[in-house]
Please model this.
Amino acid sequence: MTKIKNAALHMFKVLWQPFLAIFLGLIVGAIVILIVGHNPITVYITMFQKSFFTLHYLLQSLTRSVPILVCSLAIVASWRAGYINLGVEGQMTVGSFVGTLVAVYMPGPTFVVIIAAVLCGMMAGAAYSLFAAFIYDKFNVSIVISTLMMNYIATYITTYFITFSLRDTSSVYAIQTKEIAMAMRLPRILPGKPFNLGFFIAIALVILLMFVVSKTKFGYESKMTGLNPVFAQYGGVKKTRVMYSTMALSGAIAACAGMLEIFGIKFRFVESMFTSTGYAWTGLMAALISGLHPIGAGFTSIFLAGMQVGGQNIQLSTGIPVQVATLIQSSIILFVSVQLFANWRKKSKLKAAADSKKAGDE
Amino acid sequence: MDINYVLSVVNSALRSTTPILLAALASAICTRSGVFNVALEGQMLIGSFVGIAVNWVTHSPTLAVLAAIVAGGLVGALVGILQVRYNAADMVVGTSVNLLVGALTAILLFVVFGVKGGFKDPALVPLPKVKLPVISEIPYLSTLFNNLSPLDYLSYVIAIVMYIYLFKTVKGYHLLSVGVKREAAESMGISAVKTRIAAVIASGCLCGYGGVALSMGQVTLFAENMTAGRGFIGMAACNLGKNNPIAIIFASLFFGFSDAFAATTQNTIPSQLTQSVPYIATILALIVFSRKRKKKATKTEESKAEAVS
Amino acid sequence: MKHITKIYGNGVLANDDMNLELAESEILAVVGENGAGKSTLMKILYGLEHPTAGEIYIRGEKQVFKNPQDAMKSGIGMVQQNFMLLPPFTVAENIVYGNEPRKSRFLFDRKKAKAEVDELSERYGLGIDSNLVVEDCPVGLQQRCEILKVLYQNADIIIFDEPSAVLTPQEVDSLLDTLRNLAKAGKSIILITHKLNEVMAVSDRCIVMRGGKHIATVKTSETSTKELSAMMVGREIVDAKIPQATPGKTVLEVNDLVKTGEAGKPILKGCSLHVNEGEIVGIAGVSGNGQTELLHTIVGLMQADSGNIVLDGKEIGGLDVRSIRETGCAYVPEDRNTMGCALKATLSETMLMAHQYEEMFNHKGILKHKTAAERFTALLEQYDVKYSTLSQLSGELSGGNLQKLIVAREMSHHAKLLIVSEPTRGVDIGAMEFIHNQILKQRAEGGAILLVSSDLTELLKLSDRIYVMYDGFINGELKRAEAKPENVGILMMGGSADD
Model:
């Protein structure tokens, strides 16, 4: 019993701040909705009804959360070690593009093709992010800039291929590849709803990453490299190895995010499908709100996905742009980032600590 | 090849350079004061939007430019206060401000103009073009300097003024000192917080200027996320120019040329490929001009993530 | 200063009803052990800290200093222990910093700055080339630069906070000359120190502090080192008897190590040394003469260009940090905050560093958190570290406790070779003694210890042998019996032992 109580207390300690930030973010959103000329309360009520509180929309939100959630894990994997990968979008584009091509064109038994497609996709995503790691290691090119540039490159190059050589010519308008075979698609859980096995794979990835982060030597070493690389090196951690492995992991996870979307929902690679949806950036926001904690990132992703679904439904019914959701989300991060209220609470504590330090150091 | 064609490419490069140059100068002033500012993109985008919006309402390009600069400065103030005053992690603030401005401009686009995606209207007043007295008479030079707006010329003046400010004035010396060693500055009563916030606000104004140069320079329109990574390309230019405003001019020209190259070859090579040229050029330039200054840079790169977790 | 009392937020009483008077042209020494409250008192005078009670009068007028700028306006300047200089700028630029001569209102008149600085340094006989870039200057020159900066601000009262801590004995002599000259020129000087020979050499009067309290004010001419030290410590000092070392076989052997840094600047110019079982070998030298690089090369954080390093009979040159640690090496680094820990890591994460490979804590890549927690709790208890839980952050510990934690972590390797750098920098006297005893204990158990410290007293107390480093090479080796501050000082300056 006390154990449960302690756990609840711990949960509260970890969570009260994000919740406060979410509340403040919603207030910012309310102001904007007022400016657009609607009643924020009714808008929010519809938004949450049409995202979480009806089964139909809940399933829609959960389905939408899959790529976002997995992208947020990709961010967690690299950012924890201090490597600022802003190229999840590019990595998921390249990875899932390659995975789709293998699935569409490789001959052979379905099972083998699926395995090959997933592996090739993950390797492509990893390779794409490894390039950024490599030019940082050898030429000191900032990962922030290179990964961001590579997002645009990935989008344009894949578009080039599907516009010309790899295009599905059966459609005149849509620029996209051929569909993958029925047998390779992720099975749906309920008939008639797009909600599919992908969600559970995503949850499994959360648990897996949580295990890696908290229980393994690799997770420990990458966290230490992120907190203080000099300290980690001093303790025998090989910094470049940590960089390459976390960046590769991040790229591979990003590729999974794209492939789950394609194998579960879209069944083909469509021109700039991940640029227009902004999954990677929503995932980034989820990772930041949760302070780079895998499980927190999981919950936050579902929440943000719900907001986007709700936002879209509001756009349909009221015409308020769906970007209101992004606006609320990014203001939430800003509120989290300043840790306004934690500072206020901790201030007296820290000051005392600093004073005692001064006195001790004297 | 026709010499006039080449000159027109150079001319187009000059026009593409302006927004990048401004973003790079913005990055430089932040870096010099010891702030890592990743929100350049957002600061630019707000400038692009506000410029067009004010232009639409007032029909005055001058007011539009001024409003864009103010808007950029306001976003800069937000970034500065969060990062400097509240010690929020730079990457977190930067990326979320970029996303925030992206969303905000899309919403405002709908609120103000009632459209989604982009806005273009004949009623928008384009910037006046500068007609240089003598040069516009000379055949080749006139092509070279054709169609440049005052914003384009002014951006080079700003770079030179920034150089003088940083390296020749007392205030500039104080700004550099804050970037070098914060405690030393504070021991002399120079407030690091104030200096840095001021630098970030200045960077916001510069970006706002760069943004309006983008939306009212070659074209007069606004499109969602029209900055398309130029804030980051500006960071790369600043990096290549080693935070020196004069060197930054040349680095920015390089990126301007790659932009112009992409624009002029569109008819011969599929546009999907040419569009990626500026981004590939950025990475290549960073690789080629990397000196092994690794030790110093490594430190700053890694300190970024530190505050995140 | 009258009745100054300072109580920190955590209840630490740093100053208790302190009084202090200073006359013109006087050199007043304030002495006391670490933690006696000297620095706090001076920070109050300089406006860096605010007194809980008490008042400050200058020339009879009551003053309230909100910040150092207020103090500067009243003619108070301070040469702090860690210099407030801007490394990439010139001496002249640094000296006029904050009060720059201008031309046409905004522009920084660098020519005039240089002229004024040259004039100033000539007037006070502080020879310095104002064109030098500060980061290229040796510490002694940097200190002069700080002094000139204070003079440029027209200070009449100059506070020196432990000015000799970073200097060689010879540089100290020239510093003391400077102090005398300044006093002669009409400046009043407060010298904070715990080195009594300096007090005897220059001061007119001396205030002794202990535990935040004023113990005595004496004329220097009427007292002796012995009396002062008795007052400082509160009892007669008994020199801790350190038992004779019994060195065994060689554990570490370094031969002819050469390392060239960036831009071709030589850092190590052929260093050779050896450390045996059961002895403490010290490395003396002014900081920045290659000691840090030498240690980093031994532990594998840097690679040498040539030369070899043999640890426990195995060549370790070129190996990575982990392999070298596993061969039998532990390292207490000189800076606990930047290298010794991650301030935002928990205590158990900090404790685990470099132990994460050991079978005790790691089963096929999976960490054994439970075993680790038990082990760390026991270890922290043994090393008398005050903390609340293992999940608190390292940055929340006080300096002394964090240092003890790092020492505990490294000593628990029971490595053949223990490298210790600046083990007691900035820790209180209790922690210092504790750490010294731990080092001696390790020696008694047959450990080989390589000790680097800029605190010569500490080095002379602990070391059985001392190597002196100067400009990247070993400039001499002294046995415990031969090593005296004077001859070590000459070697630290690049002189030879026969001088």
The domain at 3-128+148-306 of chain B is CATH 1.10.3470 (ABC transporter involved in vitamin B12 uptake, BtuC). The interface with chain C takes residues 168-173, 177, 180-181, 183-184, 187-190, 295, 306, 309 of chain B (CB under 8 Å). The CA atoms of residues 28 and 234 of chain B lie 9 Å apart. The longest strand of chain B covers residues 118-119.
